[in-house]
Amino acid sequence: MVGRHGMRLVVFDLDGTLVDSLPDLSDCVGLLLAEHGLPAPSQDAVRTMIGDGVGRLVERALDHAGAKNIDPQSAVHRFMELYGPRSTDRSRLFPGAEETLHRLASEGVALAVCTNKPVLAATDILRTLGVLNLFAAVGGGDSFPARKPDPAHLLGTIALANSTPARSIMVGDHANDILAAQGAGVDSIFAGWGYGIPAYAAGASAEAEKFSDIPALADTLLATD
């Protein structure tokens, strides 16, 4: 379980990898825009806006709606006011996620989350969905000076979980996850069930079609040294 480089660790992205959060994110984007008399984008449009943190999500939503004279920082603040109490209204763990997390934990693999979502929002979601206690660390988009695709975000999360890059892998559906892993010298698994386009898998060490594929891939990538 513990090699000379530390505990084996699987780090998960949150939105689009661990949690299907699109419905609630889309609803809250719609509520924000409605307050300004602007039309709501479709869920498919919002899907393409996810992955770079709340600030970029709101910025992209405002651009998509053709918003004028709306202060971006104020809009982000208002979005979080709307999203906080609604973040788990319709969001759910992806199929097979909970069972896979418990299986990995039972095999002595440590778990962590590395997300560009603010850490308090991320921990609230994980707590409400009943899996927060399974994670050794949660590295949010505001936990460190850098965030994905900067490898410092992933490296900081790995350190919080008391592991090392040599004993860690990153699981994610976005190019930011794969790029962060590459920069950190960490193997990665592309989450084929998520929001990312297939081209994002190009730089990954492996690709999982479903959540239950992860333990076998992790065994291969994290073979005891």
TrEMBL record:
Single GO molecular function: phosphoglycolate phosphatase activity
Pathway membership: Organic acid metabolism; glycolate biosynthesis; glycolate from 2-phosphoglycolate: step 1/1
E.C. number(s) listed in UniProt: 3.1.3.18
Domain of life: Bacteria
Known catalytic reactions: 2-phosphoglycolate + H2O = glycolate + phosphate
Gene3D superfamilies per the UniProt record, alphabetical: HAD superfamily/HAD-like (3.40.50.1000), Putative phosphatase, domain 2 (1.10.150.240)
Record-linked Pfam families: HAD_2
Main enzyme class: hydrolase
Family affiliation: Belongs to the HAD-like hydrolase superfamily. CbbY/CbbZ/Gph/YieH family.
Name assigned to this protein: phosphoglycolate phosphatase
Annotated organism of origin: Acetobacter aceti
